[in-house]
């Protein structure tokens, strides 16, 4: 097992805690060699431009879901939709992403990450234009499906490209910046949507995406690194089965909170899980499986994915439930609610910046971040009923800071604890964990609101439980590392 020293001069296993990784086949216990110099980052200023292109794309893709969710009432009124029908403007986007992330990650490993990334950006741009011009629900849904597929292409290989953009000493910083921007965008989306809706209606949200996506595409065309494929072929049957299975699971999660169609949700989840079981059986001896069983066998990665799902679910529950609670219980205006929630992304930014500079093993930083996140959620759950903008904003800030402290090291582990030739699969799993967590969080928030009403703090306590589950996973990761 290759053991190197981290910035704090504490011996850590780089397979589990980030850093130089192998270019050979993944091993259960560690890495075998360092990344060769020909893929050790881009020269300046090309590196800065490529990094900017990737960061901009991360912001666009993450903002989309958060902003559109806030705009659903306005879109429903304008298009003559019921509230239930309007949710599919968001749900369809997320289902397409979760269904196609892993197949597109495998495609990136086969033909090169740059090609998949740029094609995804181009498709997302076309979908954004179509959304802006849509005059009815059917056209809008087709455009959202195109956007979802394009976003999946970007998210599937984003982390892999970051690995090739930054040199080894700066790689952790690059991952930190990406994690920070994704988290900030997700939390800031509702406030941004509220501002844009007051300025020009829901189409302005898609109008904003058009120039930003075009800029990211043009910058990427000039500067993104190009690598040849690291695998010879794609298992077409496995790709189709993966997309169908993950799509069914995503559909089941979105429908789970609808009492009238519980059987539909249950059957979709059962069929999706059955498809995953067939995939595991088909791919168990594949050295580079499309469903990355090789990565899931690594304890650090498996537990990192679980922790990521839990924290994104917790954040989504809080982001959905808090506005309803603050309006129902305290009668706060949208502006006041936006002021309170804006403290969350500020906390994320500060937490991520601090995390990137701490000289401790990544697992230790992650546990500290989860402790802070739990403290913030406990503060919100316990004292939300008392009201007070300052108190509530403080709870949101502490929660965001803990989220930011955790995400940076956890993302580093998810990307760096894998073989470099499996960068596409690692990036795909990172994105899949994030989207799965967001879908679970949205479903849980809707379930809690339906059962307990908008004036209940139960969703906030549920978010705290999710943070504690993430802590348990991260702690198990650290214990497994010490035993190894």
Automatic annotation (TrEMBL):
Q: A single Gene Ontology molecular function, please?
A: transmembrane transporter activity
All copies of domain Major facilitator superfamily (MFS) profile, residue ranges:
50-477
UniProt keyword list: Cell membrane, Membrane, Transmembrane, Transmembrane helix, Transport
The UniProt entry, under PROSITE patterns, shows: MFS (PS50850)
Q: Where is this region: Disordered?
A: 1-33
Q: Name one Pfam family in it.
A: MFS_1
Please report the name of this protein according to its UniProt entry: MFS transporter
Which species is listed as the source? Answer: Croceicoccus mobilis
